[in-house]
Amino acid sequence: MNLSRTFTLLAFAFSSVSVSVSAIEIENEIKPVMKMYVPNDIMMHMNHNSKFSHLVKIRDEFVSWAEKYSKKYESIEHELERMLVWAENHEFIHAHNNATPKPSHTVAHNDFSDMTNDEFNQRFNLGKYSPGVDAIREAQKEAKQKAIMNQVQNQGEDPEEHPLKAEFRYLRNLSANSDGDNLYVDDAIWYADEQDENQVEGWFDDLFKSDDKPDDKPDTDTDDKSDTDGLPDTVDWVTDGGVTPVKNQLACGSCWAFSTTGSIEGAAFVKSGELVSLSEQNLIDCDHVDNGCAGGMMENAFKFDEAAKGLCSEASYPYLATDTNTCQANCTKVESSIVKDYLDIKEKDKHGLIASIVLQPTSIAMQADQLSFQFYSSGVFSDKSCGEAGAVDHGVLAVGYGTDATSGKDYFTIKNSWGGDWGEQGYFRLDRKSDNAWGTCAILLIMTAPIMA
């Protein structure tokens, strides 16, 4: 049997029926056509296969969804292919939202409903299409080793610490003390791996007087209700005016650029009181350390900003969702966007992330390749399997935290870059409590915030 021909005939049968008629009428019209061309054994399977009947019944919903998202398909065969994918996702959405016990987050149809999870991941360079956490860690390791050596070389110069680092350390300790956690000192040595630490630990005895370090244990204390004692119970930089409207990266793996601009926009707002949307395309075209639509790192982008003396505005350098353009040097740079340094929060340090969010919106990375995240709609995302392996593939922006009134769960509020129709108007919330070593969806693996000049 030629399956393509059969699908095409089925699609023609669907197309020949008015969407206003009942599902029974549609099924009655399709089956005679199918009998003419489909072998009996296949037809018998379809007669007893609820999937076929279900597909017929949800056709109206697919048509309505396609109209809402202005979906246009190149052929009837292609449309049917996408409808079959949509139907599979429809079943997943229904099963998740009706599960017992009731999940703390809901899922719903969105612009990605006619994509398989693999196609979705390929679109955004997630999962197996991501550069991988090993490559990210290697790049971070090299940068941190350079920072260590710079401190050693400048040991006698007694460089002045930026006030933001001292403030971060103070706030972080407030959060940690509420948990009975250890004190934190912002030493570069803590960011090296164990081998490096053993090699250079003695070099810093005169520089750093405290051996207290953040606890490396996972955040497994599910009874913790006080990780913000001494800090605001709720932080919302969106309401406070420090976050630009939700953007859309489209079919380009440029999440790192959106996370970067978001954190610089927020930090500049905190310092100057002015919120200006910055250009992701400026980073994609001109930051040659990172890889455009194939991925990048927020720390690299901060360094690019520092060397370039700021970023251009979104208005003067609009987003194109491609990385085949020449760097434009004649755009208008935003004076308040110059990065001087950045705060690199130790992995697994939830208290450090909380403290950083109190100060300003903060760039983080996470795992985003799961089907349940593809269709996230509302509530507090709390999936233990997300981030369990400590893998990250997506750069986003932490813009607040709070407690959900319905579930009672403490959460982080995150700004995504998949448009305002996805999630909670482009945002989502992640559970602050997790048995995973790196937190829900591994958001405690890579956390960084710019320090403005």
Structural class of the secondary elements? alpha+beta
User: How would you name the CATH homologous superfamily of the largest domain?
Assistant: Cysteine proteinases
Task: Give me the Rg, rounded.
Answer: 25 Å
Q: Quickly name the level 1 CATH class of the largest domain.
A: Alpha Beta
* Helical run tally: 15
Q: How far apart are the first and last residues' alpha carbons, in Å?
A: 68 Å
Mean pLDDT: 82
The coarse silhouette is globular
Kindly report the CATH topology of the largest domain. Answer: Cathepsin B, Chain A
CATH architectural label of the largest domain: Alpha-Beta Complex
Write the H/E string, N to C. HHHHHHEHHHHEHHHEHEHEEEEE
- Tell me the domain tally: 2
Unreliable segments (pLDDT under 50, ≥5 consecutive)? 1-9, 15-21, 185-216, 220-224
Summary of the model, kept short:
The chain is built from 15 helices and nine strands. By secondary structure, the protein is an alpha+beta fold. Strands 1, 2, 3, 4, 5, 6, 7, 8 and 9 form a nine-stranded mixed β-sheet that branches.
